[in-house]
Amino acid sequence: MAIVTIVGRPNVGKSSLFNRLLGRRESIVDDMPGVTRDRIYGEVECNEQSFFIVDTGGLIVNDTHPLVVNMERQIKQAVLESDLVVFVIDGKEGITWMDEDVSDMLRRSRKPVIVVANKIDDMKHENLVYEAYNLGFDEIIGVSASHKRNIPELIDIIVSKLPDEKEIKSGEEEIRLSIIGRPNVGKSSLVNYITGEERSIVSDIPGTTRDAVDSVVLSKGRRFRIVDTAGLRKRGKIKGDLEFYSQVRTLQAISRSDVVLLVMDGADLVTDQDKKLASEALLRGKGLVMLVNKWDILPKDPKLGDRVKKTVIEELGFVKHAPLLFASSLTGRGLGKLLDNVNEVFHNRRNRISTNILNRLVRDILAFQKMPSNNKGRPLKIFYCSQTGIEPPSFVFFVNYPDIIDNAFNRYMEKELRKLENFRGVPLRLFWRPKA
C-alpha cells in the first residue's frame, strides 16, 4: 500500500491529526513538544482505498543535540519511504523559521507535499491559511484536528494524490511479534539488527522509545511484523500521563501479538518487572520466547550459561515452557535462530491433541494417580476431556467436583498435556466443568 508521512516542527498537532485520520487514538498526544520520537504506522481505509499513514517526531533541522539528530535521520528516512508527505504547520501561529527549514528539506526530497494548516477551528480564521502559500507548495488546506474540521476533505485530497495500489499477495500470513522488556535492555538495538536498518531510535537514555513501532521482516519465506515497545516501568516510577500511555501501548502491543519476545539484561537478571511482563504475556495467552541480552559484556565463564539458565527457571518457573536464548544485539551473537524459535512457537499455539488421546490420558491418570478429594473424602473423577480451542490451546475437563481442583493438580495436568504435543513456548488453558 502507499505510504503517507506526516511531518512538521514540534507541537503543531501532527499526532492529533494522525489519530483523527486513523480514527482511533494510536499515537500519544500531549501538549509537550517532542512527544513523538519514532515512526508510528497506522492503516487507513477510505473509499475502497487503503494506505499507511506515518506519524513522526517534531523536526528541528540543524540542531546538534544527539537525540534530535537521531530524530531528524528517522524523519528523513520516513520521507524517503513515502509516496506522499503531509506537512503540518500551526495555522494560528503562522509560518516560523522552523517551518521554512522543514519546507526546504521537503523540496529537496522531491516528494509530493500537501501543506496542512492545523488549528483552524472556524471560518473566521480561514484567512490565516493563505499565508501557507509562502512555503512554495501548491496544495494547501486548513483543518482542525481536534474539532475534525475539513478532515474528510483532507482525506479526499490525500486519496486523489496516491499512486495505484500495488498488488499484495493474497493469503500471506504474518507472525506478529512484540519485543518487550524493561527500559534500556536493548530492545531497539535488537529490532535494528533484525531489520537491518535503523527503524527504532537507539540511545543509552532509558525510555527513548515511547510508542510501539512496527517493522516488517521476511525470513525464510515467512513474514514477521515486529513491534518495538517502550520499556515497562514499576507502577510507582511512572511519571505523568505520557509514561502512563506508553505503558498502555506496551500492553496493547502484547495483546495484538502472536508471540512475545521478553528481553532481559544479562547484567541485571530477572527483576520484578521482568516477572510482570512475562505474566502479562501468559495472561493474554501469547506465545513467549525469552532472550538474555548484552551477553557480550558479561564475564567469560564456561559455566555462566548454566547458572543464568538456572536463575531464570527458578525465578520464572511459571513460564519455563518458553525457549531461552542468550544473545548480543550489538554483535548479533546468538540471534541466528531467534526468528526460527519465534516461528516454532507461533505454530505450537495452533497444535491440537485428538479427543481419543486426551481420554486415554484421563484413563491413565485415574488408574495410577492419587486424585484430590473434597472435605467429605470423595475423590475427584474425570469423566472426559476435549480440546476446545487454539491460540492458546484450551482444554475442558468434565468432572464431578470442579471446586476441589487446586493449583498443584492443575499444574500436574498441564505437565501431562505437554508430554502429548509440542507446546514449547505456549501457555495452556485448562477449564474444569461439572458433567451435565
Write the SSE topology:
Layout (H helix, E strand, L loop, with lengths): L1 E6 L6 H9 L17 E7 L2 E7 L10 H16 L2 E7 L6 H13 L3 E6 L20 E4 L8 H11 L12 E8 L5 H9 L17 E7 L2 E7 L11 H16 L3 E7 L6 H12 L3 E7 L10 H12 L8 E3 L11 H11 L6 H14 L13 E8 L4 E6 L7 H14 L8 E6 L2
Parallel strand pairs: 1-3, 1-4, 4-5, 5-6, 7-9, 7-10, 10-11, 11-12, 14-15
Antiparallel strand pairs: 2-3, 8-9, 13-14
Number of helices: 11
* Low-confidence runs: 166-171
- The order of strands across the largest sheet is 2-3-1-4-5-6
* Shape type: elongated
> Would you identify the CATH architecture of the largest domain?
3-Layer(aba) Sandwich
Give a written overview of the molecule.
With 436 residues, the chain is an alpha/beta fold. The chain has three domains: 2-161, P-loop containing nucleotide triphosphate hydrolases (Rossmann fold, 3-Layer(aba) Sandwich), CATH 3.40.50; 174-348, P-loop containing nucleotide triphosphate hydrolases (Rossmann fold, 3-Layer(aba) Sandwich); 355-434, GMP Synthetase, Chain A, domain 3 (2-Layer Sandwich). The chain is built from eleven helices and 15 strands. The strands form three sheets. A six-stranded mixed β-sheet has the order 2-3-1-4-5-6, sandwiched between helices. It has a six-stranded mixed β-sheet with strand order 8-9-7-10-11-12, with helices on both faces. A three-stranded mixed β-sheet has the order 13-14-15, covered by helices on one side. β13 and β14 (394-399) form a beta hairpin.
